[in-house]
Amino acid sequence: MAKKITKRMQKLLEKVDCKKIYDITTASATVKSLASAKFDETVEIALSLGVDPRHADQMIRGAVVLPNGTGKNVRVAVFAKGVKADEAKAAGADVVGDEDLAEQIKGGEINFDMVIATPDMMALVGKVGRILGPKGLMPNPKTGTVTMEVSKAVSNAKSGQVNYRVDKKGIIHAPVGKVSFDAKKLEENIIALVRNINKQKPATAKGKYIKNATLSLTMSPSLKLDAQELIDMK
């Protein structure tokens, strides 16, 4: 049985041309007109890539600090000891620890959005990997979250770093701001993210790298983006 479309969604669909391919500038302005929730909805982009994630060299993963941030207050946890722990605290990390932090996680107390760790802490972090992994919180060198530059990593996280990873279907979902953002700021964030993803294109990928792309809000229909425009963002 087909899912019934609510009156709210019906009104939003009337604002969207399902057959139209939107350029980034037009999409950034149009998506703002689709706000309908009582909260500041997240603007999300979805990119269908021409890669096969089953091959390690085509597992696209990375991070980028959006020029205008994400609009979200990110809570950061850091696994570090000694001087590096002090650096993390000074940089504004919300939770800093080692064995105690691991025990906190094992106990189900996960009140943070990103985890950073110094390389020497990864053996300890690995013990709680089964908990952090499924939540997308496992530190990784490719996203700059396993590093000795703790202060920089915390600063990036607080400034609007977005970590992205292609899923099993070859799709990347990522936030690019809030609907309250100025359209120009949304556009700048989208360009920064797409340029970063384009740099990750593997030499072994066949055919078109970005096959399809959409832009939407947390609770809105999606706008089809011009994939070629995105591919040309270098």
Automatic annotation (TrEMBL):
Q: Which GO terms describe its cellular component?
A: cytosolic large ribosomal subunit
Q: Which residues form a coiled coil?
A: none
State a single Pfam family of this protein: Ribosomal_L1
Identify the keywords attached in UniProt to this record, alphabetized. Answer: Repressor, Ribonucleoprotein, Ribosomal protein, RNA-binding, rRNA-binding, Translation regulation, tRNA-binding
Q: Does the keyword rRNA-binding apply?
A: yes
Supply the PROSITE patterns for this chain. RIBOSOMAL_L1
Q: Which domain of life is it from?
A: Bacteria
Q: Which GO terms describe its biological process?
A: regulation of translation; translation
- Provide the transmembrane region boundaries: none
**Matches recorded under Gene3D superfamilies:** 3.30.190.20, 3.40.50.790
Q: Which GO terms describe its molecular function?
A: rRNA binding; structural constituent of ribosome; tRNA binding
Q: What does this protein do?
A: Binds directly to 23S rRNA. The L1 stalk is quite mobile in the ribosome, and is involved in E site tRNA release.
Q: How does it assemble?
A: Part of the 50S ribosomal subunit.
Cross-referenced HAMAP family:
Ribosomal_uL1_B
What protein family does this chain belong to?
Answer: Belongs to the universal ribosomal protein uL1 family.
The name this protein carries in UniProt is Large ribosomal subunit protein uL1
- Name of the gene encoding the protein in the UniProt record: rplA
